[in-house]
Amino acid sequence: MTDDTDDGSSSEETEGDTSGWTDAPDDLVQSVLDRAHEAGEEGDFATMTERLREGLEDHPGNPYLLCWLGVAEREQGPGGVAYDHFLACLAARPTDAYILATAGSGIAAFDDPDAEGALRTAALLAPDLPLARWLYGAYLIREGMLEDGLRELRAAKELDGEDALVRYELGVGLALSGKREEGIEEMYRSVEQDAADGWVHVVLGLLLAEEGRMPEAAGVLEEGARLRPEDIEAQLIAALAGAASGEEDAPFEMLERARQWAEGADRALVDEVESRLDDGAEESATWLVEQMGPTALRERMMTRP
């Protein structure tokens, strides 16, 4: 997941169908949403934002427009503007479960305690909507309510077992609950369903490394790093895993990929990893498993969707 806070949930939300649930938008609002989603599906979130803002001039306070404006703003980078739109959406008291879940998840990213109520209501209003169940489950997991979170995530899997995000979040929940092997299996299923999600590759690789499956971890981490070229930490972790597995060329390639993006404190980290690579496989493995790996894994698993 987003990663980044990129945990990959954004694409599904951008393409979401708001029809078919309680309190659907009227034709005029739906027309604005359709035009905005066209831009979003092409990755043009600036145009998506512009179209939604124009729509709000004619339909002030509309929760659908506010919610998707929050999504569009969030896709352009972290900041309080998206949060303000999600808050305004929820203040309009929408009864659409998709909107409640999306906006609730939006404010959860800012640790707003009101997120729990919105997400819970969405799951209760639409128990057959996978998005509502997995977003609520993902929230509960990160709040430490592991049993309740796993219940919601397993329900989402029953509803849509082909959704890569559902399988990833279930994997996170299982791993955080101490069920590492089950978590790894779910993440492998996620990677099979969305091979382009580098974030999941990196988390899966870190889990494999922690379980002592280093050669397996090295391959998964290298793939994740290549999918996320600007992710300096991913490049360095992949370099260490490759070196720990006895690889010769790939670790230093990963190191140089990290160096290309490194600035400030990151440069010192690149130099530190380089010294570990120079010291050989054992030192690289120790530094990955005891130093970089645990912190990186915890932070990435705790990143909200």
Output the CATH homologous superfamily of the largest domain.
Answer: Tetratricopeptide repeat domain
Number of strands: 0
The number of helices is 17
Give the overall silhouette: globular
Helix-strand pattern, N to C?
HHHHHHHHHHHHHHHHH
User: First CA to last CA: what distance?
Assistant: 5 Å
Percent of residues in beta strands:
under 5%
The largest sheet, given as strand count, sense and whether it forms a barrel, is: none
- Please, how many domains? 2
Secondary-structure topology with pairs:
Layout: H1 10-14, H2 27-41, H3 45-58, H4 63-75, H5 80-91, H6 97-108, H7 115-125, H8 130-142, H9 146-159, H10 164-176, H11 180-193, H12 198-210, H13 214-227, H14 232-244, H15 250-261, H16 265-279, H17 281-301
Structure description:
There is one protein chain. With 305 residues, the protein is mainly α. It has 2 domains: 126 residues, Alpha Horseshoe (Serine Threonine Protein Phosphatase 5, Tetratricopeptide repeat); 93 residues, no CATH class. Helices cover 73% and strands 0% of the residues. It contains 17 helices and no strands. Helix 14 runs antiparallel to helix 15 and helix 14 runs antiparallel to helix 17. The longest helix is centred in the C-terminal third of the chain and has 21 residues. The N terminus is likely disordered.
